[in-house]
Amino acid sequence: MDPWETLTLIESCIPRIPLYHFSITAIALVIPLLIVALKVTPAQTHWLNIVLLAVHSVYLLYNILVEPPPNVFRSLGVPINAPVSVLRAGLGDTGADVALENLLDRFSSFDPRVYYVRFGHNTLLDCEHCTTFTTHALTALPNLILSYIPTLAFQGILTSPATRRERWRTWTIIPLLLLGPYEFYKVSTARVDMPRPGVEQIMWHDVLYLLRHMIFLVLPFVTLYFLPLAPETTPALVHPVTVLQDTLRRLEMFAGVQAASMRSPSLRQRIVDYWETQEEKSNQGRQNKRVQAEAARLQQSYATGPPAGPLRTKAIEVSKVLIERLKAVEEALSKTA
C-alpha cells in the first residue's frame, strides 16, 4: 500500500471526540507527566519545560481529536465528484450559513473541489474571491507558516543553554524548517484526479495536517527525554607555561618597580623605614625564648648560624629549585621565540 494511502487510512480512523471526553483524556495524560516531572532532577531538565510540554501536547491533541479540519466530502462519505444536490441533501438546511452556501455553489465546477482537496475547507470558506491556484495558495500559506511558529519556539526553549541541549538545536529545528516547504510543495503538486470506483481520493490537506501535528507532538518528547545532555562545563585548566610566563612578567615588573622606587628620595626613605620596622619586629620574635623553644620542639628551628635550622635549610633548597626551574623555562621560551 502506498504510504500516503496508509496515512489517509489512519486519518480516517482517528475518532472525533467531544470536548468533555477530551478534557478527561487530557487530564489523564497530563497528571502522569507531571508526576514524572517531579522525579526528574534539575540537572536533567527544568520543571517549566515539563509544563510547556504538557500544554503543547494537549493543544495538539485538541487540534487532532476535537477540532480537526472540517471536510464536507469525508463527513458525508461521498467522493469529491459528488453532485451538489447530494451535498446539500447531506448537509441539510444551510441557508443560515452564507459562506457554506457560497462554497456549495462553487462546487458546481470541478476546480474548486481540487483546491478543496489541496488547501482544505477553511481556505475556500474564508477566501470567497479566490478563483485561481495562486490566490488559493497565497491564502493558505500564511496559516501554514503560523502553525510552525509555536513548535519552533518551543524547540528553541527545549534546546536553550540552560537545558544543556544547545548542541541539538540545529538538528531539532532543521526538520521543521524542511517539513514546511515540503508540505506546501506536496499540496501544490499532488495529483487530484477524478475518483475511480473503489479508490478513495487522498485529501492532501487533511493528511498532511495530521502528519504535521504528529511530528509536532513527537519531536518535543524526543528532544526532552531521548537526546543526551551535554556534560557539565568545568573551568578550563590554565596551561602551566601560561602561569610561568605570567610569573616571569610579574617578577620583571617587580624588579623595575623596585629600581624606580629607589630613584625617589621620599619613597626610598619610606621603604627603608618600613623594612627597618619589619626587621625590628622580626628580631623581637626570633629572640623570644619561648618562640625559640616551640620552634625547636616542632623541628622548625630558624637558627641562622652554622649549622642552619631545618626551616631555613628547607627554604634555601626550595628557592634554589624554583630559581633553576625559572631559568629553564626562560631558556625554553627564548628558544621558541
TrEMBL record:
Entry keyword set: Membrane, Transmembrane, Transmembrane helix
Annotated region described as Disordered, given as residue ranges: 278-311
Protein origin, superkingdom: Eukaryota
Residues that span the membrane, as ranges: 20-40, 47-65, 206-227
Keyword Transmembrane tagged: yes
Transmembrane in keyword set: yes
PANTHER family recorded: CHORISMATE SYNTHASE PROTEIN, CHROMOSOME 10, WHOLE GENOME SHOTGUN SEQUENCE
Name under which the protein is recorded: Uncharacterized protein
Organism: Sistotremastrum niveocremeum HHB9708
